[in-house]
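Figure 6 in text form: structure in, sequence out.
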């Protein structure tokens, strides 16, 4: 069952189209990687999915009870965010903000959700440490735990391994795949690493100011587009 469907999406800035002809659907349990060169429209699509950028044309439909405020989002980090002066626990708990409703304080259940997600990410022992003092890999685990506090259905991850060393990157990819498989949480991940995208994803969306490809990872491996994008490398 599709939890998200995009039809004939077009986005523009100051009257100039930057992305058009996007059509894809995401089912429960899918792991979709969005790939493409810099400036291809990936960030614009992310803003559209989060409701931060209205399409000039087309529609984005959420179903299966999913709301835009219930999408777990892990953004690209800026230096200001890396230096955020808060504890690990406070950062993770902030992922529950949209679940507060009219309440003024976090409930016992929301605090428990934060603790459970820290345990899943292996960061419960550093919950009182300052976020700004953590390694890059630890910070990404904190942000992934925060994103999990916001959703039980869909994670939207924007370049989650940027700046990480190979070991931390591998650990992050494995964590995301386990969440996808074990919790049946759908994943949309923007990535520049096409080799890892094809390795972990079930589906690939390739953008280049328009939709160049959408299909399974197996279909993408066989496409001429993938071979061109990889410069003749092996997938």
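Output sequence:
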């Amino acid at each position: 069952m599709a939890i998200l469907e995009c039809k004939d999406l077009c986005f523009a800035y100051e009257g100039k189209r930057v992305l058009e002809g996007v059509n894809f659907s995401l089912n429960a349990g899918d792991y979709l990687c969005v790939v493409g060169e810099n400036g291809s429209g990936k960030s614009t699509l992310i803003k559209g999915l989060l409701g931060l950028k209205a399409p000039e044309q087309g529609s984005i439909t959420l179903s299966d009870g999913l709301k835009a405020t219930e999408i777990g989002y892990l953004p690209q980090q800026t230096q200001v965010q890396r230096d955020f002066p808060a504890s690990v626990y406070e950062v993770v708990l902030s992922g529950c903000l949209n679940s507060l409703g009219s309440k003024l304080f976090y409930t016992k259940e929301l605090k428990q959700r934060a603790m459970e997600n820290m345990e899943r990410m292996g960061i419960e022992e550093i919950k009182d440490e300052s976020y700004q003092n953590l390694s890059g890999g630890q910070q990404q685990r904190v942000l992934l735990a925060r994103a999990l506090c916001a959703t039980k259905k869909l994670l939207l991850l924007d370049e989650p391994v940027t700046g990480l060393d190979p070991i931390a990157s591998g650990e992050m990819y494995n964590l995301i795949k386990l969440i996808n498989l074990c919790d049946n949480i759908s994943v949309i991940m923007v990535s520049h690493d096409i080799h890892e995208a094809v390795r972990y994803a079930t589906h690939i969306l390739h953008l280049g100011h328009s939709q160049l490809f959408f299909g399974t990872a197996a279909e993408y491996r066989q496409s001429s587009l993938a071979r061109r994008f990889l410069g003749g490398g092996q997938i």
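Caption detail: The CA atoms of residues 97 and 103 lie 10 Å apart.
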